[in-house]
Amino acid sequence: MIVIGLDPGTAHCGFAVLDHERERVAIRDIGTFETPPHRLIRERVDELAGDVAGLIAGWRPACVVVESPLGSKQAKQAAMLWAAYGVIAGACAAWNAYLASRSPDEWRGMLGLSARGKLREGERKREIRAYCKRVFPTCEVALVDVPAGVRQHAFDALAISCCWAECAYGAREAA
Q: Sheet containing 24-34: which strands, arranged edge to edge?
């Protein structure tokens, strides 16, 4: 069963595709979608829509897990996150994929990681990377072609996808 995790953003959107087979989980694809910052927001959203729709259409997941944009404090960042979230929700609806959405603190708590307010940004990123490396020791090999500056989005998506395997199982059983 395929589960896709997404860390939404219109500049950088991390994604991870996991294949859950009984008690084994394998990374099938991981990376980031990027849009040029000089383009208009509607052009970036259109490009992201195509990328996300292609990912969902290509993998036909049982579940797409996305970090909710709720809690964004800066207006511009919040608007861009909601635009990315809307694209993801639309692609899920178009391809009949179950959409699971949780706040950063919810998915971090499900994995036993610290809440956002407990650690500084750099410490949170290191904690997520360490979790991903512990669960998938070779995950960095899959990210060798992803620029170092945006690699964290892929790690976030990988962690997000790990915490929601049970949603995919539930969606498949309900279908």
A: 24-34, 12-21, 2-7, 63-67, 98-102
